[in-house]
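Re-run with default settings, no changes from the original entry. Doing this only to confirm the output is reproducible before filing.
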Amino acid sequence: MANQMGLRERRRRQTSADIRDAAVRLALQRGFDKVTIDEICVEAGVSTRTFFNYFHNKESAIAYGPSDIPAELVADFVADGPAPYSVVLAELITLAAHHLRDVPPKREQAAGMLELAKTSPAVLAAFLADLERFQNHLTDIVARRQGMRPDDEIPALIAALALTAVRSGIERWSSGAGDDADDTPMPHVERAAVLVNSIFTK
């Protein structure tokens, strides 16, 4: 059953990635306002119904953000119990970046999304809303693990730092910084995690 669930989750993420890829590619070619959801579906090879199973609108399809964390990974993280903040932060960054290992975005897709966010207010708003939602989710996870309230300051700060590390890694990778041979942003995210965690040891 676990293997079946794993395969189903991978397929789900791949379908999401295919839709995002099609949406970004068409928006870059024609301009965001001139692309329709139907055209994105044709390009991605999915039905309109499938599209709306994954995204609310076309801007959310373009706005690449962290994927939801599978419940079993959240349960494992919380079950580890309270730990020093530096440990929790390091493990949270790994957890928040889980999707980058399983179905990493294409470099040109990530770069294209960031470019569209600069030129389209709708895409930027969707991107920021997705990040806020995900950060709130991370805050709740940290609070549960540490036995704190979600509105305590520490869980919110740890979540913000973790999300910053993931975003920084993706942005540096998509811009071509560092090793051009990297076909995933994970090495950049891991470097950002080391830098962020070094704050606790100085």
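The mean pLDDT is 86. The CA atoms of residues 135 and 159 lie 6 Å apart.
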